[in-house]
Amino acid sequence: MIALLIVLILLAAAAVVYWVLLSRAYAQVSRADEVHEVKTSDLWTICLYRYMPENGDGEPVLLCHSALANHFNFALPDENALVDVLTKQGYDCWAIELRGAKSSIPPYGRRRWAATMDDYLLRDLPAAIEYIQKVTRYAKVHCVGHSMGGMLLYAYQVAYGPNQIASAATLGAPPGFEGKGLHNPKILLAFHALCPPVFYYVLRGLTPLLCKVRPKSRFVPVNWDNLHPEIDAGAFFNVLEPAPPTVAKALCSWGTGEEWHMQDGEIDVAAGLKTLRAPLLALFGAADPLIPGSRAESFFKDLPGKDKKYLMLSERNGHAADYNHVDLAFGRESVKDVFEPIVEWIKQHPCLEQVKPADLVEKAEDSMRAVAAEQKGPARKRRAAPKKKAAAKKKPAAKKKTTAKRKPAAKDRANPPE
Length: 418
Known about the structure:
Blueprint: H1 2-25, E1 34-39, E2 45-51, E3 60-64, H2 82-88, E4 92-97, H3 117-136, E5 141-146, H4 148-160, E6 165-171, H5 186-194, H6 196-205, H7 207-213, H8 233-239, H9 245-255, E7 261-262, E8 267-268, H10 269-272, E9 280-285, H11 293-302, E10 308-313, H12 327-330, H13 334-347, H14 357-373, E11 391-396
Parallel strand pairs: 3-4, 3-5, 5-6, 6-9, 9-10
Antiparallel strand pairs: 1-2, 1-11, 2-4, 7-8
Helix pairs in contact: 3-4, 5-6, 7-8
């Protein structure tokens, strides 16, 4: 018994040393110009990482990360990430980190891992959009989402309507999982639910091995040969951040056959996909195991209206490779194949209207009333959406380790303009 205890202590000590070495070797400081702390309606604090254009002003773009990522989803590799391409074109980028991320702060008595998909949809996204509108004075916001982030953009329109979205672009965002029954990793989900912090450290700690072995599996949906040269073990170590257990469980449940419902079944997102009306650019990878090409095509064809565009990224269609799920955001030619089409799409849908902050609440209420009036079919069975209330503080971003010349981060703490 004593020998076993000694072995466990030694293993724990070795794990701590290993983690410290990884953290020092792969330390990555955010390049954001500003970091804004946003208070949600249920008193969580979430962060928005702001990447500003040279002139300091531009149309706002909200970037929403995937289930296993954080704001680095759109900020790596340095100078070749989506935030770099957008800011060079004059756009004001706001990369959200949803609750459960290490940057989030729960209210007293709540655990950081106690977050759900409903929280993302009904509290985090509304607070972020309202805050961005208040700071930038724009009535509408461009939105980009990768994987789960894109799914949330679909669901946001079903719940709140399209009136606050100037344009939307999604990267490998499953429009449901019809026709693609995925395997439910029950053991991993149980481990994650039992001890989320340990799962977090184990997942990130395995990144060097992952990049060395380069497994080809539906559980690791990456075209390794298509990754940008700078997306290495250090990049994955910083990007990887698992979603809370309840979020992971919901995604796996939908992926294995359950209906895509939210808010206790009152929001039927799957049925509501046919009602999406915001201008949408949908990008998919030909080698993505999560989204069959036939499902992606049928989703696109069912969208109402003509203000939509569909891109299947493959060698056959003239792209650098048959893109998988992860490399859509980190591919060696993502600037050309993925990011430039997004920029062009945003340019085609300018959000020129600017309003006073007092008008934003009225516009949001009008939007919710309009959505409620249309809720006659099964696509939108839900209670009235909760009022959105966001209060926030801004904190300076950490100093950035990069040789490129960028605007220095703000050094003051200030409330957003009223």
